[in-house]
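thoughts on these tokens:
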Amino acid sequence: MSEPRAERSEAAKRRASDASLSARGSDAGAERRPASDVIRPILKWAGGKRQLLPELRPYYPQRFDRYFEPFVGSGAVFLDLHNRGLLDGRVARLSDINADIIGAYRMVRDAVDEVIGALRGLESRYRADAAASFYAVRDREFNPARRGIRASADPAGAYTPALAAMLIFLNRTGYNGLFRLNASGDFNVPAGRHARPRICDETNLRHLSAAFNRPGVSLDVRAFDAALADARASDFVYLDPPYAPLSTTARFTSYTAGGFGPTEQARLQEVVIALASRGAFVLLSNSSAPEIRRLYESERARDAGLRAKTVPARRAINSQAANRGPVREYVITNIAK
């Protein structure tokens, strides 16, 4: 039998208060690890959260059990928590439905020397002829290799160090950190305009490999609802789904074959409400699109203790540079600041 609404609301308020005390003790103002050991994302993922970290840090609970990030993308929040020592001794379950991300990260974890060696070769080719090397890697090497593993039962498990290096290379030298697939399932992002991109950051790759190899860190290809099925009270869950578009012209081809439209956003809201209702610390980023406002300013969301707050952010993806700039985004959480 479910709790009466008033009791659920009071329980949600108590959990939010506890989380707020934790967040205020999280030492969110400075990195805890030496600067030389701070890890940066290796992928410039569209919508990556590095620029939004100052808005997210006040909500980090210092005291929590396990950490879940089911839309890992560039992993900016995972790495920020790691850099601050907030994941020391804790389980961290990282997942994504995109098998390329997980496959590449597993290769950095398990075969970092081979990934570095392959990236060095790609970087040398790029310095000799940037545009020619980009399209040669994309069309004659990366896409044919992906076709060979795409139909397998476990594409991420079939990833190789060479494929991981090519994904990192194309991401670092392509347009705006996009991962976009055409109707045939091939990667079709064009070359970007970069003066001298840093392609092979050996030190950072080795630090990232060590972080992924820590006890309790897992990397899995899973849908968000499956990944969060056993999240419980006092677990910390950060969610960064593909954003709802602010306009019809703002929608980019999805980074997964199934897409992430209004149906998926509504399903995610159900999962977020369930997590908050059972006492997990929830932090969610999304656009300020009207559909997101309707989902998270609803009575059911508020009864679960969730509040939607807008924060300033900068969008870098637009075909016209003049239209890139500051926007308002949502931070949705049951943790009081």
Observations:
- Strands lie at 67-69, 92-96, 217-221, 236-239, 281-287, 307-315, 325-333.
